[in-house]
Amino acid sequence: MQRISWCASLICAKRRRYSTLKVTKINISNFKRISEVEISLSKVNYLVGGNNSGKSSVLQAIHMAASCAKLSLERKEQVLPESELRYSPTSEFTLLGHHAPYENKATGSRGRIEFTGEANDDTVASYRVEIYKGRNYGSVGVDRSGTYPGFGAEICDPKSMFSVFVPGISGIPHREEHKNYASVFLKAAGGEANLVFRNIIRILKESDKIPEVENILEDIIGPCEIGIKHDAERDLFVDVEFSQAGGKSVPIDLTGTGILQLVQIVAYVCLFEPKFLLVDEPDNHLHPSRQALLAKTFDKLSELYGSTIVVTTHSRHLVAAASATAKIVWMKDGKIESDECKDLASVLMDIGALDQLDSQGADCIICTEDKGKKALEKCVDGLGLSERVKVISYNGINNAASSIAIKAMVELYNNNPIIIIHRDRDFMTDGEVSVWGSEYINRDMVVFSPPLCDIESYHCTPNHVSAVYEMDAAEGEQLVQAEIDRSAEEFRNKFRKKRQEANQKFWKDGGSPNTNDLWPENEGANIERAYGKKLLSNLNDRLSNQPGGRRNLEAHVSQDLMSLLKDCLHDAGFFNVEHDEHAR
Asked: What is the pLDDT of residue 559?
């Protein structure tokens, strides 16, 4: 109860200091990898995509715009010496232009970053920062303009930190001299808060905020204690120690990378209470369990301090652990590929099988529903292609967001592998399969939907049963058909239900094929009309009395399915791809 009331009182206290304006959208033009992009924001946002997709450019643009605007207001000057910029991602400012180096003319190459938000009275507010080459050598021009009184003042307030930028793995120095608050503030404003981390902890102690940091961390990693050893009159260096769950205290730089990063991020937000926390690829070298803790940390900080948090990441673990309200944005070539976060998050949670491709590579990736993974892997092994073809599983590959996610993830790999999307046929017609797969086909993927109802059906064919139980082909044919006849009415009902689902999905305006034409009433059931999942279970039970006992039909590769997969690979041009052993 005490911890609940602590959190509640902290939230209330922070909310009293929250801005009357909240930024809901960022527009960035002509900055590094970005030509033009508009990003709608939630409280916690994850930018994902391949290398050079523009993720880091977003963070750098936000931080640089705020930094330049603040310095311009403080100096009351429109043109600033480049050498005095508090933050710049490059030593040559003009080269930040996407189209061309920044120029000194209104119609020339300029970087533009616009913050759009809402006031408490629902008024839409915006504040634009333009950066360009100053007339004199080594100078930077800054134009500031806004549409709502006070919005720009909040961004440029010299007494507060609009954004804190945490680039990459932010290691800390082994030793750190005492610095005053102004020096610490300037280092943090320049994206180098990690270099004054111990001083940040010292200032938090002097402000009686260490318990605040410890309480937030306790919600994430359990009880912990931060100790500071520093006497301003005697000590040149600041020493900080850390302990967990009553354990031994150790110097802060000897804690694990994951814990150190969590403490850093929480400390920065507790001290500076920024409007924006910008974190660049915090997942590097972190164990998956620590990445999940990071997601929890971001949610907690946003709740307590009202900060808008923007994180770039390559990690499926971090995105999978994101809260339901987090926004996930896929970026490619400086543009938004998709921001349908819920479907995308479910794909990313299942992307784990792609981890092996980072080291082993693949010429082809087969994406399938979970039930089909083992059967397809057996086919790949049977074809002797396990080194070149990888099978990964997804839940519900059925929408545009999934196709975008798969394509974007595959583009992380240099060899541009062939992508095959497998799904059960479920009694769909060829035309319906083509409509279902259009989102994938339009992105140069291949749809593989074998003609039987589902992948289990291929472990029920007479050929497969005869091979597994080493029986005569005619005997296998008779046995399978007898089991199909026993469940014929159940299979017909399943067929009708699946056709009803297909008609609702693909024929909303009418014109669907007549179900009775597809399976006339006067015709019996056969393997093409059987529901494989049910038939497989029945066959395994029926065959348990065979000589030698029961043999799991799914444990053996289906020759029929393997032949169909080989044909699909051939049609996709897989066998035209040269296999370089040295590239694996």
From this structure: 96
